[in-house]
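tool_call: predict_structure(chain=1)
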Amino acid sequence: MSSQKGYVACSRPQRHQNTVSFKNDDDKFDKSVQTKKINAKLHDGVFQQHKEGLEMCVTYSNYKPLSKP
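tool_result:
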């Protein structure tokens, strides 16, 4: 943590830059049936703002379906 209070602009550029973007390859790491269902699911009938959020969670492997509907 910084010892400075309030908003202070960073004086240096970010330390590490990703050269390759993250890919949610279910073949590479997680081969479970649940992951394949999540990747195949379409989010229709949802507000556009919520749809973008859900698609982002699926893209970065952060989406967890509800345990009970």
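agent: The helical segments are 33-40, 48-59. Proceeding to next step.
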